[in-house]
Amino acid sequence: VQLQASGGGEVQAGGSLRLSCVASERTFATLRAGWFRQAPGKEREFVAAISWSGVVTHYADSVKGRFTISRDNAMNTVYLQMNSLKPEDTAVYYCSASESSSNYYTRVAMYDYWGQGTLVTVSS
């Protein structure tokens, strides 16, 4: 499965962006999807995950209440709506997909497929 992320850009603090990630195969609809981010000099960290059905979602504490993950399986697409952005949200954002349904959804190693990343810059 190939993933193509888009929607990044530069925004002022308090602003919003919506990231999209389109998958190349219909099997994406059967996979857990996730968003991770990596700031300069830091490790890649979990942001949000969504079950294959879209019913179950998980968020990192740092984005809870500000970010929303969703998916449209008919369009092979997962979204990340980011509101009330802060300078500390600045990072390259990666979409991912996992064949596993384990509880370790925050772990990078649990994801089998990765997009190329899209840069989000939040200025103060």
Brief summary of the model shown:
The chain has 124 residues and is mostly beta strands. Helix content is 0%, strand content 48%.
Strand content: over 45%
Oligomer: single chain
* SSE-based structural type: mainly beta
Overall radius of gyration? 13 Å
The total count of strands amounts to 11
Helix amount: under 10%
Helix count equals 0
| Overall shape | globular
Low-pLDDT residue intervals, each spanning 5 or more residues: none
For the largest beta-sheet, the strand count, sense and barrel status come to:
7 strands, mixed
Q: Strand-and-helix sequence, N→C? A: EEEEEEEEEEE
Question: What is the average per-residue confidence, as pLDDT, rounded to a whole number?
Answer: 97
Distance between the termini: 37 Å
